[in-house]
């Protein structure tokens, strides 16, 4: 496993604005008013979600909750076989919903398994409602279980084919609504942890619509005024995994324990048509 990243090493949106890392489009009208307190809670990074030492990470799971490809498989491998055993007891999960488990060998305390929609299989309006529900349910579960920091991958944007830019807008909008609501103060950090550079770029280009900077924090011509320590935090982030999410027609993974190996291994079933993989 790569080096563990602590919460205080992850830059906030406020810091990213201060360092001029977030482009501000003068033609883009914010959809919400500035809120400095919200900006102190939001982070956008490109990295490996399995190395974040925070309260809860979100797994982009499939309905079985038993592991798969992409982020789903990476989380199951990093968490170890006890995660599979607990997920067997959860009874699966419908698209648009989420369930919570322990983090086991991960540095995060909890895993929130959110099942995103298959965009290609649903009317666009239904897919949108289910994706927004994934983010809302994830935030609600975090608060319900006393988790103050949570990281989301770009749910459904891999083999489930949800358009990346639309997914970003839906995610940012749902998180903004939650932070504006009655339970918003119960969360201290919401992290958007991107697997692909294109998602990171989209989040950087879009975030100011939902979390604009206060007027006094808008982009200046003097980024060097940010402290060296702050700049170091902003660049000391883990690299994203190098493997792409797998095709949804490939078989689902299952755990097998052998006499020769104490750890579990992932084995593919022969019939790929009856099983879908998890993905971003």
Automatic annotation (TrEMBL):
Residues 214-280 are annotated as: Disordered. SMART domains: A1pp. InterPro entries: Macro_dom (IPR002589), Macro_dom-like (IPR043472). Gene3D superfamilies: Leucine Aminopeptidase, subunit E, domain 1 (3.40.220.10). SUPFAM superfamilies: Macro domain-like (SSF52949). It comes from the Eukaryota. Residues 29-211 form the Macro domain. Pfam families: Macro (PF01661). PROSITE patterns: MACRO. Residues 216-228, 268-280 have a biased composition (Basic and acidic residues). This is Macro domain-like protein.
